[in-house]
Structure formats: structure tokens, C-alpha cells
User: Fold Zn-dependent hydrolase of the beta-lactamase fold-like protein from Thermotoga petrophila.
Amino acid sequence: MKITWFGHACFALEMEGKTIVTDPFDESVGYPIPNVTADVVTESHQHFDHNAHHLVKGNSRVIDRPGTYTVNGVRIKGMETFHDPLHGRERGKNIVFVFEGEGIKVCHLGDLGHVLTPAQVKEIGEVDVLLVPVGGTYTIGPKEAKEVADLLNAKVIIPMHYRTKYLKFNLLSVDDFLKLFDSYERVGNILELFEKPKERKVVVMEVQ
Assistant:
């Protein structure tokens, strides 16, 4: 499995011979627009920094609703959550997506705005790779992000949706999240997994 980070909440997941792009952003966000072709695009919610599927190359299937889907051996499950701690009254709904392929489970939390409930944790189950927002303001912040990672017993924790030199939003940097862990590792914009991860680690990716 190959994971590429394009910035914000946008990743490409390559598994089972297919490419899935999550939460593509538009030009106003600040990051370079990804040059990527996808078989599937998932959108956690319909805000401009998460739903620019028209900028993704290829005849992509767009999944923007809760439900269970199968695409050439990849199982995709979308679960309804909220974009804020007030059951959506401030910013609406959010979809958490779980992707399973090549024996690895990846969970993308989108713009989750609250700690997961016990029922939601049970529905998602333990995850191998967690893509978690940590920047606060519009999503959960560092402490809530760590709590969610603990609840899901995530092995590889990849922070997203935080302030960088590119982003034009006023979010926290990733440093506030990293302070909650004893160690972490930095990689480039690509992470490859050749087997199911066994040890917990925090991986900070960089946009190239």
C-alpha cells in the first residue's frame, strides 16, 4: 500500500491496483493542486477545501455519502459523524471513511469535530492507519485527536489538517499534537506499507 499526502486532508491511497483520493481541495487553500489520477474520490463533506473532485484527473467515481462500497477488492465504508461538537449545528455533518485492502485498514476522519462515541468506535473497529485532523478551529484539536487515536488503537497515526507554510487558514501547527507523544518520525510525502503494522508510531508527512 502506498500513501501520498498532498496537504490538508488530501491523500492518495494506492491499494489493490486502484487509486483513491480523499478530500481534494481547490486553488484557494494554498497547497499546489495535486497532479493525480484517481479511480475513486471520497469527500467527507461539501466544503471547498474538501470537495474539489473536478480537479482530480480520470473518470473518478465520487463517493460523498455514508454507506458501504466495494471497488475492485477495496472495501470502503462511510459513517456519518459531525463537523462540530454540537451535532452539526455549527458546521454540519462529516463522513468518516474506512478503507480496507491488501490486509490493511485505513481510516480517514475528514473534518471530525468531536470525539467519537462508543458506538462509532465499535463500528469503525481498530485501525492500522489513522489520518486524523489535529489543527483545531474547524475540527478536533491535538488532545481530542490523540484520544480518538487511542480509542481506535491506531498503529500508524498520520496527522493532517494543520497549519503549514502553504495553508491559508489559521489552524494550529502539528507541533502541538506531537508534544503529546514520546517520539515520532518524519518522512517525505510518500509512505509505503508492505505488511500490516504491528507497532504504534506517529508519522509526519511533508508536502513536496
The CA atoms of residues 76 and 99 lie 5 Å apart. The first helix runs from residue 118 to 124. Residues 2-195 form a domain with the Metallo-beta-lactamase; Chain A fold (CATH 3.60.15.10).
